[in-house]
Amino acid sequence: MRRLLSTLAASLGLLLIVCFSGCARLDQPADGGRERATLEGHTARVHFLAIAPNGKTLASAGGVSDATIKLWDIDTGLEQATLRGATSWVRSLAFSPDGKTLASASSSYEERVIKLWDLDTFQVRTTLEGHPSGITRVAFSPDGRTLASSGFDGSVKLWNTTTGQEQATLKGHNAAVLCVAFSPDGMTLASGSGDWDDSKEEPKGTGEVILWDVATLETRAKLKGHAWFVEWVAFSPDGKTLASASYDKTIKLWDARTGEEKTTLRGHTEGIRSVAFSPNGKLLASGGRDKLIRLWDLTTQQPCGILEGHTDEVYTVAFSPDGKTLASASADKSVKLWDIDDCANGE
């Protein structure tokens, strides 16, 4: 088969790249950036990705029938390792600030655990158990000493990453908590919730964001305004703005100190799965059910680019630490790497 394809390509004067597994397809044009590579190897939807602090490694998590975590070299697009051990859907990943540990969260009735992986040995160092239902998101504190997790049971838990012990359970949401994020200074934790049912076409209930004081474990503010569940929260690099993405097709920007709404960004035609700030804080990327990645100029609060290439909904978007690369994970079983230009560089 490979010889036949090569002969056909040569006769037609074409460059043909054949990817059978664990490799990358290259170079598709897009508005606002250029697709640099497509990482293929998962056998089911890729629900989550995370980029290591050094910007060299990307971790991706497979869906229900895959249940693997793959590590990729961002420069070459080649698979480095596959971490096995989960028996169900890996819904979330997070690198520790020092890049030595990867946290993974499983989300099913059969397996409701967080695993801390040692990235030197690729073995599980600690398993955290305590959520009574599926775990939706994990996030490390900036100092790496605490891991926050959220769950369908409506709670947020804080864990000591050294001992593996649960430190606290935060209760304040009245629905499933779908996302958590620490502020850059580690003093505030944001969590987003709502009546989660992504099979519905019309809103079911409303979405809510809570800002928690990490020192006192008390609620600082409740942010209301979304018409459906909040799927993602992210702080700007300077910690002054919180972005929330909702299945109501909108992104809201909030004053992270006062909890006041700054603006609402509209453009996606279906529910939004994720958002990510560029490292310089000038750009916001968002991915959603409409299969698109949208780029937003945060100076003008206007859209400045669309990245097209995925053939199914986009679950996760994340910037590399230098801001030159955007990674996206999709239900089409792939991860894409994009070179970002123009508005993405705040120009």
Layout: helices, strands, pairs:
Blueprint: H1 2-12, E1 23-30, E2 33-40, E3 46-51, E4 57-62, E5 69-73, E6 79-83, E7 90-95, E8 101-106, E9 113-118, E10 123-129, E11 135-140, E12 146-151, E13 155-160, E14 166-171, E15 176-182, E16 188-194, E17 208-213, E18 218-224, E19 230-235, E20 241-246, E21 250-255, E22 261-266, E23 272-277, E24 283-288, E25 293-297, E26 302-307, E27 314-319, E28 325-330, E29 334-340
Antiparallel strand pairs: 1-2, 2-29, 3-4, 4-5, 5-6, 7-8, 8-9, 9-10, 11-12, 12-13, 13-14, 15-16, 16-17, 17-18, 19-20, 20-21, 21-22, 23-24, 24-25, 25-26, 27-28, 28-29
What this model shows, in words?
The protein is mainly beta and 347 residues long. The protein has one domain (25-345): Methylamine Dehydrogenase, Chain H. It has one helix and 29 strands. It has one helix at 2-12; strands spanning 23-30, 33-40, 46-51, 57-62, 69-73, 79-83, 90-95, 101-106, 113-118, 123-129, 135-140, 146-151, 155-160, 166-171, 176-182, 188-194, 208-213, 218-224, 230-235, 241-246, 250-255, 261-266, 272-277, 283-288, 293-297, 302-307, 314-319, 325-330, 334-340. The termini are far apart. Residues 1-30 have low confidence and may be disordered.
Backbone shape: globular
Instruction: Pick out the low-confidence regions.
Output: 1-30
- Text of the CATH class: Mainly Beta
**What is the mean predicted local confidence, pLDDT?**
88
Radius of gyration: 19 Å
How many domains? The number is: 1
- Sheet bearing the most strands, described? 5 strands, antiparallel
Q: Give the strand order, joined by hyphens, for the main sheet.
A: 1-2-29-28-27
Strand content: over 45%
Q: Which H/E pattern describes the elements?
A: HEEEEEEEEEEEEEEEEEEEEEEEEEEEEE
> How far from one another are the termini?
47 Å
Number of DSSP E strands: 29
Which percent range fits the helix content? under 10%
Structural class comes to: mainly beta
CATH architecture descriptor: 7 Propeller
What is CATH's topology name? Methylamine Dehydrogenase, Chain H
